[in-house]
Amino acid sequence: MTTSAQPVAVGYAEALAELEAILAELERADVDVDVLAERVKRAVELIGFCRARIGNARMQIEQVVADLGADG
Question: What phi and psi values does residue 34 have, to the nearest 5 degrees?
Fold first, then answer.
């Protein structure tokens, strides 16, 4: 079985939208067990991507706030 590496996402909003679509798919009663593992794996990738984006944004905000405090 060959799998192609799918890029995580272009941006946070796209990753979040894909996560929501995966969640809706997994909530269905008729979800295929063979698909389940792949979708969960993809969700983990997307969650990691989103966490990294949030962490990066937090650091940038903290730097801006620190810079504002240094000017005062």
Answer: -65, -30
Per-domain residue ranges for the chain? 12-71
Residues 6+ positions from 39 with CB-CB distance below 8 Å: 22, 25, 26, 31
pTM of the model: 0.75
pLDDT tens string, the chain, 72 residues long: the values are: 444 456 666 799 999 999 999 999 989 888 888 889 999 999 999 999 999 999 999 999 999 999 988 876
CATH number of 12-71: 1.10.287
